[in-house]
Amino acid sequence: MSISISAANKLLDALSITPYDLLEHLDEIARVRGALVVEGDLDGSEARLNMAGKPAIITVARRVTDIPRRRFSTAHELGHLEMHRWKVTLCTSTDMMEWNVKEGSQNLELEANEFAAALLMPERFFGSLCEEEPSIDYFIELADQFRVSLTAAAIRYTNFTPEPVAIVLSQDGFIKWFRASREFEEMKLFVDVRSRVYPGSRARLFFEGKTMPTTPKRIAADAWLRPGNYNRDATYS
Ligand SMILES: [Zn+2]
Question: Whole-model pTM above 0.70?
Fold first, then answer.
């Protein structure tokens, strides 16, 4: 088990945290762990942890009004407090989207994000919900239920689903990175990172400024995947 998952589980156990606590009392959870959550004007960053005094101060940028984003930022900074113990840390919105696993090096932002996901969507409450088939509509339901972003819910889903599923982040029309379920990895499938988002895919519609339906669409497997261990005529939803 990674350091971030075990740190989140330790906290959940220590405070006997319920799903209701997570939804309604996240700031109090931080307070009990030694950090006061406040909002403030932060230039260019999303959240800050200052450990110079007691209590430590978690500042969330005032301009971040989206509740799931605020909650994730708070949990992310709490992760730095629990695991890293720096004096001051400034975290940007890019840090909050750091899900890229790099072999061999410790990635503190990834650890803080994994901590936040494991705290806000604990395996004990979230894991069994991932038996359902994947769909954007279902991820929206999970995101609403746990008050997290759609991206955070979808990424966490890959940790528990028995299905081969990959969540892909694309930016400016190009595939940036993906997070895959264990089943997907065991099939030795790889999303074609750095390639252009495939014409005709749902995601491409977004980059063309069109409305992106949430219903699944079958598409040639090689629209998303690197050539590999699958039938060339295979299609995926
Ligand atoms: Zn951070």
Answer: yes
Q: How far is the CA of 201 from the centre of ligand 1 (A)?
A: 33
Six token digits for residue 191: 């999303």
**Do 54 and 137 share a domain, yes or no?**
no
What is the tally of structural domains in the chain? 2
Alpha carbon of 187 to ligand 1 centroid (Å) = 32
Examine the domain organization and report whether 11 and 77 are in the same domain. yes
Contact 109, 95 (CB under 8 A): yes
Tell me the mean pLDDT per 10 residues along the chain, length 237: 93 96 96 96 92 93 95 96 82 84 76 96 97 94 97 96 94 92 92 90 90 86 85 69
Instruction: Determine the 3-state secondary structure of 170 from DSSP.
Output: strand
Which CA distances in Å does 147 have to 70, 122, 131, 173, 220? 10, 13, 20, 28, 34
- 29 Cα–ligand 1 center, Å: 18
Instruction: Give yes or no: residues 117 and 160 share one domain.
Output: no
CA 89 to ligand 1 center in whole angstroms: 7
Instruction: Say how many Å lie between the CA of residue 169 and the centre of ligand 1.
Output: 19
Which residue range is the domain that position 56 belongs to?
3-123
Rg of the chain in Å (alpha carbons): 19
